[in-house]
Specification:
alpha+beta, about 20% strand
Length: about 375
Amino acid sequence: MAEKNSPEPQPHRPRRAAKRPADPVAASTSNRATDSSEDTPKDHSRRRRLIRNGLIAVAVLLIVAVGAGLIYVNQLRTTFDEQRNVLDLGLGSDDTAGRTEDGTVNMLLLGSDSRGEDDLEYRGEIGDEAAERSDTMMFVHIPADRSGVYVMSIVRDLWVDVPGEGQGRVNSALGVGGYPLVIDTVEELLNTHIDHVAIIDFEGFSDLTRALGGVYVENPRPFSAGQHNPAFYPEGTIRLEGDNALRFVRERKAFPDGDFTRVQNQQLVINGIVDQLLSADTLTNPQRVMDVVNGIVPYLSVDDGLDANTIAGYALEMRDIRSGDIEMFTIPTGEMATTASGAQVILKDEEMLELLQRSLKNDNMEGFIEYIELRESQDEQQ
């Protein structure tokens, strides 16, 4: 249960309304060959007939190639839609829909580390061992012009208003009211609207790095992770795969600032995954793409509107996006504080939060990032 401050909060009534049927986004490709040439006279040379027959052969080969490509794409769609776990969250028509500009897309990404020792210990520290919690929380904003992607990590100890429950850690909402309350909590925190939700078990994250053949990150600091058979991660370019990648993103005890460095490491790995996904080695290898989908989808839960056609539509709109167009940062925070019960929490930075809210509303996250970079530059010069 989230910790309470006066006045007594009102019971929470989830805003999640029935989802409007969405128009499916067609992402298939069709090719049609037409022959508008006139009939060849009988006295035309054998050379002309050979050229014509050669063009027909090429056309047939193109049709076969496109057909094979469509079969492959349809297999991917079927695999995704049949294996994903669907959450009935009713996104799309609640009273927050008017908070965003038309055409923008906001997603909430949650990582479940229910099997990790670190997460179990964390629950014990805060006296809530039984409740389900989200170990990783990221808010993704895609602007209407599809010029980039903004990924913001939300530290799990951030002290926020949990609708109907009073004040508490941001990740306490899941144990109290499930995913609908998590959505409402983040929407209220950012004064925005969430279009889609995706939850991945960290075991699936491990399999994803294996399917990609490993990912590379530029590790800014050396550290060790794990109490039993600890793994060491040197400074510099390192390769992560499977359990090794899982330890890298889970570790927090090795760092003085705990969760802040951990979310930075998670961002590094996500960047590495994107780089590998968008590499020619992956995109030109149908089997690797299929392995990626098969490896992650069984561990993935999404809202009912995030199906294969919708994802294909977004992918088509963002076909020119590369990893350099993805901005990753952590939500601005204030000071550390101690609650009345003795819990250590992180307060909000109210000034920066208000600016963030306005930037999301006006679809101007580029300006927000530029302001953050300017402030950091000024701080370094002082």
